[in-house]
Amino acid sequence: MESIFRPKWWVFLIRGIVVLLFGLMALTRPGMTLSALILTFGIFAIADGIVETVIGIVSYKSNDLWWSVLLSGIASILIGILTLTNPHITGLVLLYLIGLRAFVLGFLEVVAAIELRHLIEGEWMLIVGGILSIIFGVMLFIYPAEGALSLLWLIGIFAVIGGVWLILFSFHMRSAVKKIDRFLEGE
Predict the structure, then answer these.
(1) 154 pLDDT exceeds 90?
(2) Can you tell me whether residue 45 is helix, strand or coil?
(3) Is residue 12 a contact partner of residue 156, using CB atoms and an 8 Å limit?
(4) Residue 89: per-residue pLDDT
(5) Which of 7, 28, 33, 48 is the most buried (most CB within 10 A)?
């Protein structure tokens, strides 16, 4: 009998190596990383905007704040398209777009939490998340250079840690496969 893990442990190894290399690139070559982030942000903003727009449209009859979700979705789509259609956009402009998006979404989250406070419990969590998003957006506007470098470093550090973890996990999984194989051979 063949172990179900046999073909999969090396996928974690390859993934870990790729993530680790991306993290090292983010830490050592922030310019290249910024180009990759511009593309990723554009795609993410469009995808997230589509989801928000659909939610806004679908909740038209059941939610008084449907318009805020719809506007947020449309704004996200437009920012994503702007980012992708101008691939030579500067890091500063991208940073301002990310900051603007964080500020607008944070504001709309606070508004939604206040309006929904009678319908849901724990609305304070949405308010706190919205306030943190607003603060993040404002900080990117006030300290753009530090914000850009900090974002790249955080992404790099996270990717290095995640890559190392995936590599270690792949070896752990590989040894587990060997144990399972020995067990199955004894049947």
Answers:
(1) no
(2) helix
(3) no
(4) 66
(5) 33
